[in-house]
Write a structure and sequence with these properties.
binds guanine, 39% helix, Urease, subunit C, domain 1, binds zinc ion, globular, 2 domains
Length: 424
């Protein structure tokens, strides 16, 4: 066992942030050997219960749950900031040509190593990530995550049409490869597999049907895709699937909406789509820096809440512009404000933080496993320095409430705030 003394941020079951200004976090192995939170609370209330346990003094710092990124593309690490008129030209001119390079396993391994280190440097301890259509790109990321003991979920991208040579896969082989990767990696150490159709326009109905069959055969496996991000994309999906009720309905028709299914963006949905999300247990990965960068639109928080739909935050690097959860939370706040002018909703700093930690974990079906620091949670946490920059030090010293403290970190924070990231 080991204990850490610092201010501690965690979340109650009702999603509200709980803050101990002088807290103690005690971690140790559970029955399986996994390192978990054994106890957490006020230092003075807990310290006598753990005699002999070494305590590291981190006073002046804040311990918080590791961040959970619900949607990120590791092969797009070097695509960040590529200018384009919108999603479809961005994919055609930058993303697909770049992803073709991941047929080279050595190249993929190099990017995977950089990507995982960059996640950890930014305080992200769990990610649901796209690889590319090349199975070796999946192996590269899983191997790197396993070496770091990270909880990471990824999968081979399925895209058997409307994709250039170099990334387009073969329908039958793509499904054989997916099943082989599930059997090799899903549930190994802290790793999980996600069946990953890129988006409906780049998969044939046969490939989507096969993906849905695998999703039914392996219920603990995740599903990830994109939906309703951009108006041109929505129009294209309607042309390709004229019988579907909506773009989201395409995924429903092929059995791809269920618990553990994560759909990036979910901007241009209607009320029936949101009800379908809620009814099936599928969740939205809200990706505000990407949506602002590519000019895709604004996630409608009020409508999502009205439908009781699950969602959480995501960077969507490389459409997204930053690995930093602080940047993502601030962009989500801007997007919420945009909604505010129409619907009267404004996000609190506690809600933003929850959406990138415990709420994101809940959307993944991992509530109580990651994203929080309640007893039993896996011991993934960050040590934050509220004085990381002169302006942050000045601003956080003047905070009169938890909301003011968290908001200062969200507005002014970035990787400089993350002093250390602890994995398990
Ligand atoms: N839709 C299909 N592929 C992608 C992608 O790589 N990024 C984003 N943002 N949207 C997509
Ligand atoms: Zn994406």
């Amino acid at each position: 066992m080991k204990a850490y003394r610092a201010a501690i941020l965690r979340f109650a079951d009702d999603q509200t942030p709980v803050y101990e200004s002088d807290g103690l976090l005690v971690v140790g192995p559970d029955a399986t050997g996994q390192r978990v939170v054994c106890a957490v609370g006020a230092y003075c209330a807990l310290v006598d219960s753990f005699p002999g346990v070494a305590i590291e003094d981190l006073r002046g710092h804040i311990i918080a749950p590791g961040f959970v990124d619900l949607h990120i593309h590791y092969p797009q690490t070097d695509v960040i900031g590529a200018p384009a008129a919108g999603l479809l030209p961005w994919l055609e001119n930058y993303t697909f040509p770049h992803e073709a390079r991941f047929s080279d396993a050595t190249y993929a391994r190099g990017v995977a190593e950089f990507f995982l280190d960059e996640l950890l440097r930014n305080g992200v301890t769990t990610a649901l990530a796209f690889a590319t259509s090349h199975p070796s790109s999946v192996n590269a990321l899983f191997e790197g995550a396993q070496a770091r003991s990270m909880r990471l979920i990824t999968g081979k991208v399925l895209q058997d049409r409307h994709s250039p040579d170099g990334v387009r896969d073969d329908t039958e082989q793509s499904l054989i490869d997916t099943e082989a990767l599930i059997q090799r990696w899903h549930g190994v150490a802290r790793l999980g597999y996600a069946i990953t159709p890129r988006f409906a326009p780049t998969s044939t109905p046969e490939q989507l049907r096969g993906a849905g069959e695998l999703a039914a055969r392996y219920p603990s496996v995740w599903v990830q895709s994109h939906v309703a991000e951009n108006v041109d994309e929505v129009r294209w999906a309607a042309e390709l699937f004229p019988l579907a009720r909506s773009y989201l309905g395409v995924y429903d028709d092929f059995g791809l909406l269920r618990e553990r299914a994560m759909y990036a963006h979910c901007i241009h949905l209607d009320a029936a789509d949101r009800t379908l999300m809620q009814r099936t247990g599928a969740a939205a990965a809200v990706s505000p820096t990407s949506n602002l960068f590519l000019g895709s639109g604004f996630f409608d928080y009020a409508a999502a809440n009205a439908a009781d739909m699950r969602y959480g935050l995501a960077s969507d690097v490389g459409g997204g512009t930053s690995f930093s959860p602080f940047h993502t939370m601030l962009a989500a706040y801007y997007v919420g404000r945009e909604g505010h002018t129409k619907t009267g909703l404004s996000l609190t700093p506690g809600q933003l933080w929850w959406q990138h930690t415990a709420g994101a974990a809940q959307a993944l079906g991992l509530a109580g496993v990651v994203g929080n620091l309640q007893p039993g949670c896996e011991a993934d946490f960050v040590v934050l320095n509220p004085q990381a920059t002169p302006l942050l030090a000045r601003k956080t010293a003047q905070a009169n409430s938890l909301d003011e403290l968290l908001f200062a970190l969200i507005v002014l924070g970035d990787d400089r705030v993350v002093v250390r990231t602890h994995i398990a």
